[in-house]
UniProtKB/TrEMBL annotation:
Classification of source organism: Bacteria, Pseudomonadati, Pseudomonadota, Gammaproteobacteria, Pasteurellales
Listed name of the protein: Uncharacterized protein
GO cellular component, one term: plasma membrane
Stretches that traverse the bilayer: none
Subcellular location: Cell membrane
Cited InterPro entries: Poly_Biosynth_Transport, Polysacc_synth
């Protein structure tokens, strides 16, 4: 009985993702103090702006495949030939998108950050765009081999941490951060591709027809991910543009703490998504989310009592003015925990996965409208931008709950 329990895929995947998310929490705790100490608030903000650009670049080159292809790989797990062609099609699309995104990124940096980013940094940034495009977490999530994702990421993070610690202590320049990140992303891409073959799969020649089909199928997921970027990544760019890199640095510091907490809470959604695709057991999902919501909120409350100590430990005195922001981000983490699980896991269980995309698109448009109003009224500041994020995430959660209840009561609705 115990052996059967331990062999359960869901449990194994949850443990692997748990280890991964802990590593996502531990390694940044080692790196952030270094960046804050050696770079200062202004340069830290500049690095965060560039990382925001790279995050947007990744969203474009990923094109929603992290959701759509996870679903397809899980669905056609036993058809190696079909998955091989699928991988070839996806990688071809990613290569083409990387070229387009690289050109667009270069143009943006030359216009917006030419006085802060030199040619060497620009080269590092562009190579990183190509490297991160070939990360295929979606594949290993689809075949439910979360252990591969965990091993690859931990190896890369250890290397990145060591590189940053050694080089940045000797040469304190933002280019060091970009170079180390490039090495990190390249190692991850290479190891993922190697592990595709080690797990008995392979990449086959792509076809134009197949690539076009995957592009069309993933379009709604892509729109969803871009919509998410409107109320996440874009905020740092907006603050950096209107208020400078120092303000962007403070906001990013608070957001990093939120991301670490959110990453730990995200274990549930990442584990449940492929499981819900296969089983459709939404009652189990609701039970798990309901049971975990109370400890999640309690944990956020406890963390809010020690915000100043956390900021001092991670970033130093210069970042203490982000105190209230962190508390608001912790409140937001309680909302997003439920929202994430009521997103793709829940909608895939009731065979309405695209509706999760629609809620995000509506939320993105709402947030974009709010940001536009703040700009018009000259009210762009850290507090107002974060309040807009909280409002947007709350709206998305309510929409998802309403739609799930509606579909469950109207099973014949198309």
């Amino acid at each position: 009985m115990h052996k059967k329990f331990l062999n359960n895929k869901l449990i194994k995947n949850a443990v692997s993702l748990g280890i991964l998310q802990i590593s996502n929490y531990v390694f940044p705790l080692l790196i952030w103090p270094l960046l804050a100490k050696f770079l200062g608030v202004e340069n830290f903000g500049l690095v965060m702006i560039v990382f925001s650009i790279l995050t947007l670049a990744y969203m474009f080159t990923d094109f929603g495949f992290n959701i759509s292809v996870t679903h397809l790989v899980a669905q056609y797990y036993n058809d190696r030939q079909r998955i091989g062609v699928l991988l070839g099609n996806i990688f071809l699309i990613k290569l083409i998108l990387s070229v387009i995104v690289s050109v667009a990124t270069t143009a943006y940096i030359l216009v917006e950050l030419s006085d802060k980013i030199d040619l060497l940094a620009l080269i590092f940034i562009n190579i990183t765009i190509f490297s991160q495009a070939f990360h295929c977490i979606w594949f290993f999530q689809g075949i439910e081999r979360m252990g591969v994702i965990t091993k690859v990421n931990i190896i890369a993070k250890i290397g990145y941490t060591i590189l940053v610690f050694i080089i940045l202590s000797l040469y304190q320049h933002i280019n060091v951060v970009f170079f180390c990140f490039l090495i990190n992303q390249t190692i991850v891409a290479v190891l993922f591709i190697i592990n595709i073959y080690k797990n008995g799969f392979f990449v086959l020649n792509p076809t134009f027809k197949g690539s076009w089909r995957e592009l069309k199928y993933s379009f709604s997921f892509f729109i969803s991910r871009i919509s998410v970027s409107v109320y996440t990544t874009v905020n740092v760019l907006i603050l950096g543009h209107f208020l400078g890199t120092s303000i962007a640095g403070l906001y990013s510091a608070a957001e990093k703490i939120y991301s670490a907490v959110n990453g730990v809470f995200g274990i549930v959604a990442q584990t449940m998504y492929p499981y819900m695709v296969k089983t459709g057991n939404i009652k189990l999902l609701c039970m798990v989310v309901g049971l975990l919501s109370i400890p999640v909120c309690f944990m956020c409350y406890i963390l809010s009592l020690y915000v100043e100590e956390i900021i001092l430990l991670l970033f130093g005195n210069d970042f203490l003015s982000a105190n209230e922001l962190v508390k608001q981000f912790l409140f937001l983490a309680c909302i997003t925990f439920v929202s994430f699980n009521m997103g793709y896991p829940a909608f895939s269980a009731i065979k309405r996965v695209k509706w999760a995309n629609y809620t995000v698109v509506i939320g993105g448009l709402l947030h974009l409208s709010g940001l536009f109003i703040l700009i018009i009224l000259n009210q762009v500041n850290m507090k107002n931008v974060l309040l807009m994020v909280i409002f947007t995430e709350s709206f998305i959660l309510l929409c998802r709950i309403f739609l799930i209840i509606f579909f469950l009561r109207n099973v014949k609705y198309i």
